[in-house]
Design brief:
Helices cover 60% and strands 3% of the residues. By secondary structure, the protein is mainly α. The strands form two sheets. It has a two-stranded antiparallel sheet. A two-stranded antiparallel ribbon has the order 3-4.
């Protein structure tokens, strides 16, 4: 040893300080030394995504530091998609709110449900901007402050906002598709008589169901199903990182004797751990890692394993979303078929007149929007459901996909929906483009053209848009 002590050769590189000055472990390739407390862990545990040092130095270092949103591309998408979603949906909410009381009663219902979709997508946009702001604030320091963030109330609030917005949006889209099919099959008079009184109830049910799905995982009465683990005060080096039920069970069985796992609730765990230690040196502080604290983006825990107690709740929620997607697809397929049939009838009755051509253009635009609605909903939810299924079978570890899911897969609909469900923004964009194009290609009439112009000739302009 460097301090002139001697140790047996088999104690060199055994991840223990046998010399007293750590010289027997210097230069060893099989271990990593934690910075603050100077103990050793196997090198395989360095940068493996699990904190093994009390000071988090095995995961928070120059080689493998973590951020909430990793990579420049994801950061850019979070700001871009979030900002675009907030702007587009805010414009449509203002426009829909202004016109909400205009028109007949069926038009009000249609406009009101579109308003609900915009509100749900606005929540998603606000979630993206907030998580991007938090990522900017924490930066590379997130790795060391990870446990503080995952157990915090702001993280739980972000999870509720994101899940509430996504659920309001998908349920409202489903309700709108059913309403449109009903209006086609039964006509406007019956809609006014039968649905106007029920519309407010349906909207109330959508809001209530969305809130319950988002908030139920945080209710203390259901903590045994949704709490992921506990974190302990760093000043008391009892446990490292997040401690799940299995680790608690091992410690409690060693101290109190055999306890059945099915009887071990989080309330019981708190009570038994408190009995193990005195309060002479201060209270042993613990924090719950809530349902939305499984990753830094504070997303709904879509990816669960077969052993997770949240499995049934998560798969029930995913089944609801899949059913909504199938319902939307079925309804718009009926609308598309009805639109084609109506277009053929008009063509037979009116021939290729101007009104028939306008109707044909309108139907083609409707069919294009229907196709885009179905495709975007498919790309939003089906990949998440498939990944969750593979994760639950432990074929794929999808934990690293939470950031991609929250920023790209589940959020892109909040940008596309305002363009598909209301043509106000597209019409504005087209009019601006036409104005710019006309200005760019405007040619001042020459004197010869002005001289040859005959005042007696009248030119009638017809708007074909």
């Amino acid at each position: 040893c460097n301090n002139s002590n001697c140790v047996a050769y088999d104690k060199v590189c055994n991840m223990a300080n046998d010399c007293g000055d750590h010289s027997d472990e210097e230069g060893c390739g099989n271990s990593f030394q934690c910075q603050t407390y100077k103990y050793y862990i196997p090198i395989s545990k360095k940068c493996d995504g699990i904190i093994d040092c009390h000071d988090t130095s095995d995961e928070c270092n120059s080689e493998c530091g973590r951020e909430i949103i990793a990579g420049t591309v994801l950061k850019f998408l979070a700001w871009t998609l979030g900002g675009t979603s907030v702007c587009l949906n805010s414009i449509l909410i203002w426009k829909s709110g202004k016109l909400l009381g205009n028109g007949n009663k069926s038009a009000r219902i249609n406009r009101g449900v579109k308003l609900m979709i915009c509100i749900g997508d606005l929540f998603t946009g606000l979630y993206l901007l907030t998580i991007a702001t938090v990522d900017r604030i924490f930066g590379v320091e997130y790795c060391r402050r990870q446990l503080t963030w995952l157990t915090s109330s702001p993280c739980a609030a972000l999870g509720i906002i994101n899940m509430f917005g996504a659920t309001v949006s998908i349920l409202s889209m489903t309700y709108l598709s059913l309403f449109r099919v009903y209006s086609i099959r039964h006509g406007r008079i019956e809609i006014v008589q039968n649905l106007i009184l029920k519309n407010n109830l349906c909207v109330g049910v959508i809001v209530l169901c969305s809130f319950l799905i988002a908030y139920i995982p945080l209710i203390d009465s259901f903590e045994n199903f949704f709490v992921n683990g506990l974190t302990y005060d760093k000043n008391f080096r009892l446990f490292i990182s997040i401690v799940n039920k299995e680790k608690h069970l091992d410690v409690i069985n060693s101290y109190f004797g055999k306890i059945k796992e099915r009887l071990l609730t989080w309330k019981t765990i708190n009570m038994l751990i408190d009995l193990m230690f005195s309060n002479d040196y201060g209270e042993l502080k613990k924090k719950k890692v809530h349902f939305y604290g499984n990753e830094g983006v504070c997303l709904f825990k879509y990816f669960v394993k077969s052993s997770d107690p949240q499995l049934k709740f998560v798969w029930t929620t995913l089944s609801i979303n899949a059913s909504c997607f199938l319902c939307i697809t079925f309804c718009y397929s009926i609308i598309n078929t009805g639109s084609k049939r109506m277009n053929r009838k008009l063509t037979l009755m009116m021939g290729r007149s101007l009104n028939a051509d306008l109707s044909d253009k309108r139907n083609k635009r409707l069919q294009r929007n229907i196709t885009l609605i179905i495709i975007t909903d498919f790309l939003c939810w089906i990949p998440v459901i498939m990944i969750s299924f593979l994760h639950s079978l432990e074929i794929l570890d999808a934990t690293f996909l939470y950031a991609y899911s929250s920023i790209v897969i589940l959020s892109v609909n909040s940008v596309i929906n305002p363009l598909l469900y209301d043509d106000f923004l597209t019409k504005k964009a087209k009019s601006i483009f036409r104005a710019l194009k006309a200005k760019a290609f405007y040619i001042k009439p020459s004197q010869n053209l002005q001289r040859n112009f005959q005042p007696g000739i009248q030119i009638k302009m017809v708007d074909m848009s």
